Hints:
Blueprint: E1 24-29, H1 33-45, E2 51-56, H2 67-70, E3 73-76, E4 79-82, H3 84-92, H4 98-103, H5 109-123
Parallel strand pairs: 1-2
Antiparallel strand pairs: 1-3, 3-4
Amino acid sequence: MNGKRMGIPADWHKSANATGTGKKVVYIDADCRICRFLGRLLESADKREQFTVAPISPAAPEYGCNVMRDEIRLEEIGVTRHGADAVFSIISAFRGFKFIGYASRSPGFMELSKKAYSFIASHRHFLD
């Protein structure tokens, strides 16, 4: 992942506010092909530069927690979302997709989404 904004911030374990960028930080598994693809897709779609994509790898000296690689994480000022919650927050941040945020609050939708996300996340390495 050679995107100009990609990299692991030295303070990856702190909130996005601590990075001083004011951007939302999206942590992805650097060893996962699907995660890297989605990170590149997010970078190219993020015209307003709201996000910083940070791949986490065990080879990185900043790496310190397996939980970071188990699911996508989104860190905003004082708030951390993970899994399906993070995905819906990211998608709904784009113009034309605000309805995703509303849909995620409908009864049963989030529970089903979390189960689907968990299934895909646990089987993602079979696609490598």
